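Hello,

Our lab assistant flagged a job as stuck in the queue for most of the afternoon. It eventually completed. Since we weren't sure the result was trustworthy after the delay, we are filing this so someone can double-check. Below is the sequence as submitted and the structure that was eventually returned. Let us know if re-running is recommended.
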Amino acid sequence: MTATAARPETSVTAWRSPMATSYLLVAGTTILVLLGLAVVLSSSSVTSIRTDSGNAYSHFITQVIALVIGLAGLAVGSRVSPTFWKRVAPFALFGSIGLLILVLATGFSSGGNRAWIRIAGFSLQPSEVAKLGLALYLGVVLSMFRHRLTNLKYVMVPGGIVALGVLGLVLAGRDMGTAMVMLLLVAVAFWVAGVPARFFGLFGAFAGVGILVLLNSGETRIARIMQWASGSCEDIQACWQSTHGTWALASGGLWGLGPGMSREKWGWLPASDNDYIFAIIGEEFGLIGTLLVLAAFAMILIAVTRIVTRSTDRFVQISGAAIGAWIVGQATINIAVVLELAPVTGVPLPLVSSGGSSLIMSLVAVGVLMSYARHEPGAAEAFAARPSVVRRSLAVLSRGRRRG
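-- returned structure --
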């Protein structure tokens, strides 16, 4: 009776522990990265064979290199203090702005978006760096002016002006998908900072007008939205990607066809290792695999919510919420597109899709969140009091010898 009654209390105590946030981040990130590696290997092998002289592993090797770099950034980023991230925020933002300008001057296009530059033989997408830089910078300036954010002047200067500038540079490269993710990041940062709701109505109206102008400036965007809104498929080529994405999900069933057994990756589904990797996950791992992905992102969302609600540092609250909006919001957009709940926007699935810049910066962003989690009230003491795995193993061994 007593032992049975103690179990719920133990689980509640564990949930309330400040270490729970770190465990959620580690668990969610590990699931997404491992599943992503498996599916990138499967889905990119066909493209690699066609484009890299028969080497089926060339794209996968690039992804592994990016993963190693990203994990190093995560490890270092999680060990430093939030004060460090506050200090590097301006350098991260203005450095990324310089790279975005370089993209417009010397960058190259892919999929209709001018968003990449080449550095030392590798391609880099500066907008991924700008996401983290913008989240950190908004955390600094909005926490600094938190008592004056009822005044439009302090809402716009410097946070609003800088955010508009970064969005303008991204849109100049015609990368509307990334701009949408950044707009969500900025909105969440301002909301958590305490900006009055009336300003969101004003900015929402301006954003709506801007989106209409951008949509009318590109025939491809209008065609995608009209095809999605109509729900019909008169032009087979126009809805080829969404149709084959749906077929991939449907053919996976409950348990999937098995690792590496996708049929759509054989040239039928464009961007199968990137924007539409969620469809390949559904095809190879079934409904169980897709639910596992959703559960992993839910873990990250819960962890971010804990950081925002438990931290007493306004910089941590604002920048942590912005990073969470970036990762979870982008995942929501990507999955909604694959499920045909939204028109095609062209954003990858964070921590899962192929693409070095996205994977590296997403892992660094998780490292920032882990840094915040390790500095939650009581977290340092909880980690210090927790016996290490080595010490526990030695204790078990010593007990066994004594008994022997």
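-- support follow-up --
The delay was a queue issue, not a problem with the job. The result is valid. The mean pLDDT is 86. Residues 21-199+234-403 form one domain.
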